[in-house]
Amino acid sequence: MTITSIRSRSADDRRFSIASTSLIFGCRAEGAGSGRQVTVSVSGEVDAGNAKLFAHTVREAATDSAVLVLDLSEVHFMAFDGASALYAISAHLAREEVTWCVVPSPPVSRVLQLCDPEGLIPVSDVALLRDAKPA
After folding, report:
1. Is residue 108 within 8 Å of 85, Cβ to Cβ?
2. What whole-number distance in Å separates Cα of residue 1 and Cα of residue 105?
3. Would you state the pLDDT for residue 62?
4. Which one of 6, 7, 117, 124 is most buried, by most CB atoms within 10 A?
5. Residue 56 and residue 16 in contact, taking contact as beta carbons nearer than 8 Å
6. Where are the domains of the chain?
7. What are the tens digits of pLDDT across the range 96-110?
8. In sequence order, what are the residues at sequence separation of 6 or more whose Cβ sits closer than 8 angstroms to the Cβ of residue 135?
């Protein structure tokens, strides 16, 4: 399923695309109950021009889910506004009692290192394994 906002003039104006599937990623679902897990895959870039739309679209895609995996592994650029969008998503999902995690790309990991030093945005263990160096 591809989600396109009716507010954007065209799909190219968004500079990112979102697909929602039911694939299982490595997100810990402690206390998630028996609800469904949704994986939202985002590709492209998240910047000041589309961060609010990004947050809104992800929140809409997570409706009625117990676990959300936000796959940002194909995001090749994230501005600091993207971190604000992730905090907004986090606050919304906490109110809805949705367990969630982020699968970051290297650019997303860098923004989270700078903007989330306390580790409030949950990062998936899958991302840690993907970025690991061979012994």
Report:
1. no
2. 22
3. 87
4. 124
5. no
6. 11-26+35-130
7. 999 999 999 999 999
8. none
Does the domain at 11-26+35-130 match CATH 3.60.20.10? Answer given as no
**pTM for the full predicted model:** 0.73
Q: Name every residue whose Cβ is closer than 8 Å to that of residue 95 and which is 6 or more positions away in sequence.
A: none
Which of 55-75 are b and which e, b meaning 16 or more Cβ less than 10 Å from the residue's Cβ?
bbbbbebbeebbbbbbbbbeb
Q: Are 75 and 46 in contact (CB under 8 A)?
A: yes
pLDDT tens for each residue of 9-47: 344 445 666 665 443 444 544 444 456 888 899 999 999
SS3 3: coil
Reported residue count of the chain is 135
Cβ atoms of 89 and 40 closer than 8 Å: no
Alpha-carbon distance of 118 to 135, in angstroms, equals 29
